[in-house]
């Protein structure tokens, strides 16, 4: 079952707002066995809308339209839909009652322009909007379903979850789609692909493998399509187990969650705590951890020790180490991670020191030079990285590589 999403609004095309609706809708549709074939953003232009609808009808079974349903003159979606289907706009009593209810609730005067929100194309089935005045409109024309909804995200989401998705499941016979995501870190996409190529070749035609790389990470997504959910799930699980065994230490978790969340969950399940000693990342690694609820079960905190003085006073790095080897060195990062373990009383610790850039580099320590150490439970790893010249990317890459090394450390601890 194929779907197409059309978002309408000049504000999207000029970058004034970001289209978050399409990504959310695609995720929810996929869960019920509807695959999105195309997503388009188009302008508030009648001819553009008419053309987009006609083209989409040749590609998809269901067309979702968001935006352009407001009460002002620039919102033309409803009138254009009426023209597309060759019908008149008529007043819908339920939609009008809903508009009156909302204005009465907030004790606001009901203007004539607001009453016009209840005008809908004569051939549509109204889907009431419990969180706004613009009704949703369901059309079934020549075997194609069209669903027009408000562009306001929370209005669209409530409408989809409460009414549209249940209606689609009740109306259509949908296939089963199962996804399983394997999160890996520290190994490039091409190296992973070469390592698992023979297993990938064994996949049947109804199971696909997608590579989703992202700054030091690669997510491998297995997608299976069929009729029997139990059988499909067993097949996916068998192939996932083969991939995991072959991937080895770069594998983190078989869930589609952020890397740092996976590390937190793994540490919590093993009753371990963590502290950090950050220099060039300036607290970015700590931010990644603490953005997740419940991170305090694992993450104790740490230090952002930019200066020599703080590296000495908070972490116990020796003065002679700093002046002899410099802040960006194997010797310094070793003492930083040891100081974090000692002073912050955590089971494991991470230390990062480097030259983030764009200046500050030297001939032997150019911009992008970063030392990372992880330690705890009698084991430690220290590694030097040489990234690029862009400060933000260096900070992000440092954090990701620190998480990769933490994952390796956890793997070793479990042996």
UniProtKB/TrEMBL annotation:
Domain MoaB/Mog: start-end pairs: 4-171
CDD domains named among the record's database cross-references: cinA
InterPro entries on file: CinA, CinA-like_C, CinA_C, CinA_KH, Competence-induced_CinA, MoaB/Mog-like_dom_sf, MoaB/Mog_dom
Alphabetized SMART domains for the sequence: MoCF_biosynth (SM00852)
Pfam families documented for this protein: CinA, CinA_KH, MoCF_biosynth
Family listed: Belongs to the CinA family.
Protein name as annotated: CinA-like protein
Source organism of this protein record: Mucilaginibacter angelicae
């Amino acid at each position: 079952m194929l779907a197409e999403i059309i978002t309408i609004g000049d504000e999207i095309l000029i970058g004034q707002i970001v289209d978050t609706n399409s990504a959310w809708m695609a995720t929810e549709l996929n869960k019920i066995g509807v695959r999105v074939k195309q997503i388009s953003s188009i302008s508030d232009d009648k001819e553009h809308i008419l053309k987009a609808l006609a083209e989409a009808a040749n590609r998809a079974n269901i067309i979702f339209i968001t935006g352009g349903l407001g009460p002002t003159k620039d919102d033309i979606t409803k009138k254009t839909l009426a023209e597309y289907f060759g019908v008149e706009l008529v007043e819908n009593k339920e939609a009008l009652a809903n508009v009156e209810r909302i204005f009465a609730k907030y004790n606001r005067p009901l203007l004539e322009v607001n009453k016009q929100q209840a005008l809908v194309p004569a051939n549509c089935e109204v889907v009431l909007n419990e969180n706004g005045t613009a009704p949703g409109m369901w059309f079934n024309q020549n075997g194609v379903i069209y669903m027009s909804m408000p562009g306001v995200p929370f209005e669209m989401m409530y409408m989809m979850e409460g009414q549209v998705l249940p209606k689609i499941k009740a109306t259509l016979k949908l296939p089963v789609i199962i996804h399983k995501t394997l999160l890996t870190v520290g190994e490039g996409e091409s190296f992973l692909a070469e390592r698992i190529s023979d297993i990938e070749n064994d996949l049947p035609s109804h199971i696909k493998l997608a590579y989703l790389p992202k700054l030091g990470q690669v997510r491998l997504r297995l997608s299976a399509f069929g009729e029997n959910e139990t059988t499909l799930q067993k097949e996916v699980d068998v192939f996932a187990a083969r991939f995991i065994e072959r991937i080895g230490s770069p594998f983190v978790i078989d869930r589609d969650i952020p890397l740092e969340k996976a590390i937190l969950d793994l540490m919590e399940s093993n009753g371990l705590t963590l502290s950090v000693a950050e220099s060039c990342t300036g607290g970015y690694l700590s931010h990644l951890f603490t953005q997740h609820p419940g991170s305090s079960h694992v993450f104790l905190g740490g230090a952002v020790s930019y200066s020599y003085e703080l590296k000495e006073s908070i972490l116990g790095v020796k003065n002679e180490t700093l002046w002899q080897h410099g802040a960006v060195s194997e010797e310094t990062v070793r003492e930083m991670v040891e100081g974090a373990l000692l002073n912050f009383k955590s089971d494991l610790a991470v230390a990062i020191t480097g030259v983030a850039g764009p200046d500050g580099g030297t001939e032997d320590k150019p911009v992008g030079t970063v030392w990372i150490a992880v330690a705890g439970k009698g084991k430690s790893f220290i590694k030097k990285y040489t990234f690029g010249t862009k400060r933000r990317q260096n900070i992000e890459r440092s954090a990701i590589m620190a998480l990769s090394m933490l994952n390796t450390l956890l793997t070793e601890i479990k042996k």
